[in-house]
Specification:
This protein is mainly beta and 120 residues long. The protein has no helices and 11 strands.
Length: 120
């Protein structure tokens, strides 16, 4: 069994900060690109940020300068530090990762999502 477990979502005032975590568990041989998506009500799922196994990051324009993506390969965990949060950031945030498990198919795996709500 392999899975991605997200944590760190919640309610925060505009201008505040949150830190999301996503940990991969199970028998995993390799983790390639990891990232975060978000989906607000009535909108399509949007790619927010990605990070390669070597630490190279990319961000959607709307979060550049405010969000920081990092990973701890020893812990198989990716973090999304979100600063200067805006009401427009309110969404369900989903972790995704390209995993090569030992006993399961090689593909993109998804977390269950964690709610981030930013009040004005």
């Amino acid at each position: 069994q392999v899975q991605l477990v997200e944590s760190g979502g919640g309610l925060v005032q505009a201008g505040g900060s949150l830190r999301l975590s996503c940990a991969a568990s199970g028998s995993i041989l390799s983790i390639n690109v990891m990232g975060w998506y978000r989906q607000a009500p009535g909108k399509q799922r949007e790619l927010v940020a990605t990070i390669t196994s070597g630490g190279t990051t990319n961000y959607v324009d709307s979060v550049k300068g405010r969000f920081t993506l990092s990973r701890d390969n020893a812990k198989s965990t990716v973090y999304l530090q979100m600063n200067s949060l805006k009401p427009e950031d309110t969404s369900v945030y989903y972790c995704a990762a390209d995993l090569v498990p030992r006993y399961s198919p090689t593909r993109k795996y998804w977390g269950q999502g964690t709610q981030v709500t930013v009040s004005s």
